[in-house]
User: What shape does this take?
Amino acid sequence: MHLYESTWKKVDSLSRDTPILIPIAALEQHGHHMPVFTDSLLLGEVIRRAQEKLAGRVLFTPLMWLGNSEHHLDFPGTMTANPRLYLDLLKDMVENFLFHGFRRIVLVNGHGGNIVPSQQALFEVRQKYRDRNDLLLVASTYWLLGGKPHEVNKDIQQQQVGHACELETSMMLRIRPDLVVGDVKKLETIPFGSGPAPAYRAWITKDRSEIGHIGSPQFATAEKGETCFQVFSNDVVSLMERIIAWDGKTWDM
Assistant: This one.
């Protein structure tokens, strides 16, 4: 079910155990070869495929394209909310549905910079409603749900999602090849690096990449992109089926 197609009476008629899925993405630079709307386009396709398999069981909100992208601001075309504003925006979207009685709310994320804010936003909402024991508030990122495209398609070289990398470029070649600029085979690998791992170092994108991409886009193909979409959309479906099946009480799902 799409929220944007529904009347308020239709929404009001839903069971309050109906999961609400809120897709969150970004508008930011993706190197020399990819459009600034990449994250939103890719997440939109993942969600479209998942919705086909979950039709009638989950309420899907419109995709939130504005994300936490301050680390990309050195590159023109990037749009971002400041981190605190973004946190509050996510909290407000979740609390809109809590106000109307819904109890199972899932953020499905398609941008690395949104991972920490989405988790923090739900953490803060949960503290606010700490007297409730019926809430299921879940933050997820579609490429971190367990699927491993490189194990399905052995031609895929990257084992993790980077930025405008082999995987993201392949996915764009699958759905919007007209938006991929130039000959990606001429691009070079920008290594992920390890930094001070396992410690965390605060960074902006230019600390790691002067041209904007991180990873190996030169290995991208539309076939690999189809593999990624199949794996990642199936992961979202599996997550939502667990949300649907939750007994409303237990910690494990």
About this structure: The beta strands are 20-24, 59-60, 104-109, 136-141. The chain has one domain: 3-245.
